[in-house]
Amino acid sequence: MTGCHYRRLPTEADVLTFESTDFTRSNWAPDLQHGSPPLALLTKTIEELIADSPLRIGRLSLDILGAIPVAPVSVRAWIERPGKRISLLAAEMRDGSERPVARVSAWALASSDTADVARDRYPPLTEGPAEPLPPHWWNVEGYLKSVDWRRQPDDPAGAAVWWLRPRVHVVDAEDTTPLQNLAMVVDSANGVGAALDPQRFVFMNTDTVVHLHRAPRGADFGLRARGSIGPDGIGVTTSEIFDRDGFIGTSAQTLLVQRR
User: Fold this and answer.
1) Where is each Acyl-CoA thioesterase-like N-terminal HotDog domain found (predicted)?
2) For labelling, which of 54, 87, 223, 235 has a CA lying 20 to 30 Å from the CA of 144?
């Protein structure tokens, strides 16, 4: 990996501060962050809270509370509901005016050995030769340059299939966990499964909710995504998530749909 989404700044008490790099920049607007870097950063702070516990994160839920600027941000993480078997954790990002702009909640559950009854809903997703990227959307600067995009043939049922791999760290040159690697790309399911032409429509997601029945491994993730657009300007994108070893979970996103 070369580069990062955020650089650490001096910390005050339990509040962490970070400089946002150009790799956080959204494809929707040059002064706004893409949803994936905030999700990855807030996931990192939550993972650090439970680093020495037997709990494993089974659900991540990102809510985008407002426009996230490409500027210094502050982050605080806390345990909202402690427990030995089930714990609810949260982390919040604020901009320079102390306005909350993003929040992640995570359910962490006690892990145990259920290998003898483990079941996957779908068979593993095999990556084939990458197809050319579309002429728009994916060939721009900012966040999209921080990810390796490998487009695959569409699924026979009509879903779009892409393999993605982060090219940069979340923070400085700090180690990046598999869950953070996934968080760096999973918000992109909205673009992967786009049901509309981004040159004619804006379809920004307000959230990203990820359920993981298995802990992710590595840094390569396959998304099989599909968008649905309602008649009144609201849509949903759902995705099945795979790593190199198979199916690991699902994601869902609520969309605001508007004509350009």
Assistant:
1) 25-107
2) 235
